[in-house]
Amino acid sequence: MPGIKDAKCVLVLGATSGIGRALALAIHDLDTAPTVIVAGRRQERLDELAKQGERIKTARVDINTSENELKGFVQETLSKFPELDAVIFSSGIQHVFDFTKPETIDLSKFQDEITTNYVSIFKLIVFFLPQFLKLSDEGRPSFIIPITSGLSIVPFPRVANYCASKAALHSLDISLRTQLAKTKVNVIEILPPLVESELHDHQGITPALAKAWMPLDEFTKNAMEGLIRGDPQVAIGTAAKTVSKYEQDKQETVQRLHDQISAITSSN
User: Fold this and answer.
1) What is the CATH code for 4-267?
2) Phi and psi dihedrals of 265, rounded to 5?
3) In a 3-state reduction of DSSP, which class is residue 199?
4) Residue 71 CB burial class (10 angstroms; 0-12, 13-18, ≥19)
5) What is the DSSP code (8-state) at residue 15?
6) Crossing angle of helices 250-267/160-179, nearest 10°?
7) Which pLDDT does position 205 carry in this prediction?
8) Which of 191, 154, 190, 146 shows the shortest CA–CA distance to 172?
9) Which of 29, 37, 67, 68 has the most Cβ atoms closer than 10 angstroms to its Cβ?
10) How many Cα atoms occupy the beta-carbon half-sphere of 200 within 13 Å?
11) Secondary structure (DSSP) of 136-171
12) Residue 13 has what DSSP assignment?
């Protein structure tokens, strides 16, 4: 089965910290020597990353932007890197919302969170797909790799909108994989548990979470093993237990229903 080892040029969105940064460096170190494009908002961190390897390139982007800006970013990236055949969507933000105190809920934060974690990723997938379908027609594999969360399946109410945005992306991943099953476009979903990162720093609870989270190095090792194998879902730690308990046979069920409906509609 094709895996990330077969990619020639990998774009990592949200690569300036945490999971995105760790995966970008790990992919760069693969024996297959892919080009890795690290993308994010903070130029100084991109510049620091570029010093880590000769095949690391940079692209500054904030995906919480307009549709035209996103389309322009994709066009510019493909013009510079026509061999691009994999995108990892690691950008994400997380906010706390207390629905017992609705007056405290900042709807601008809600909008930023849903846009960054889902809406912009949906749009970017649409914009990158022509390139990947073209590669498929040429017999080459490509990879769409969204990062969701174990919370996409069992939510943590304190971060309700984060969980909802990841649940939307998780559902989209299943549908994408089903629709693209007859192509060489591979949809690989990474489902992390609570992982060491900067995601929670602004919430003021990092010291407490640090007692429970999975170290970033351990997560990266496990994630890379799944990416190299080309597992459709790379669920790690407690997220793997959640998937096993609540998601058994879900992909197969969706594929079967899709095939049944397709057969009915095509016969009319």
Assistant:
1) 3.40.50.720
2) -70, -30
3) coil
4) middle
5) -
6) 50
7) 58
8) 146
9) 37
10) 14
11) HHTT--EEEEEB--GGGTS--GGGHHHHHHHHHHHH
12) E
Q: Where are the domains of the chain?
A: 4-267
Residues 6+ apart with CB under 8 A from 125: 87, 89, 144, 172, 176
Q: Residue 95 is encoded by which pair of tokens?
A: 């906010």
DSSP-assigned letters across all residues of 31-75? TT--EEEEEES-HHHHHHHHTT-TTEEEEE--SSS-HHHHHHHHH
| pLDDT for 204 | 52
Sign of the torsion formed by the C-alpha atoms of 207, 211, 213 and 219? positive
Mean pLDDT of successive 10-residue stretches along the chain, which has 268 residues:
96 95 97 97 93 94 95 97 98 94 97 97 98 98 98 96 98 98 98 80 58 86 98 97 95 94 83
pTM value is: 0.93
The length of the chain, given as a count of residues: 268
pLDDT of residue 266: 78
